[in-house]
Amino acid sequence: MSLSIVAALIWMLIVNIRAMFPSKDNHWKFAYAMIALGVPILIWVYLDHGLILAAVLLLGAMWVMRWPVIYLSRWIRRKVGQ
C-alpha cells in the first residue's frame, strides 16, 4: 500500500473517531482543519493512483463530513438562484 493511501486512511480514521465525541461548536473548527489537511492528501492520491481512486476517497470524505457539503450546496443554490 502506498504512502498516499495510508495517509488518506489515517485521515478517515481520525475524522470518524472525532465525530463520535460531542463538541460545543458542532465540530466546525475541526472540520475546517480536516478539510485543509484532506485536500492535499486527496491531490496526492490523485497523483499517485489516478482519478478513480481519488474520486472514491472524495466520496468517502463527503460522506463522513456531509454538513460542510450540505452548507456549500445550499450556498451555491442561493447564489445561482439570484
UniProtKB/TrEMBL annotation:
InterPro entries to which the protein is assigned, alphabetical: DUF2484
Keyword Transmembrane on entry: yes
Transmembrane helix as UniProt keyword: yes
TM region positions: 6-23, 30-47, 53-72
Domain of life of the source: Bacteria
Swiss-Prot/TrEMBL keywords: Membrane, Transmembrane, Transmembrane helix
Name of the protein this chain belongs to: DUF2484 family protein
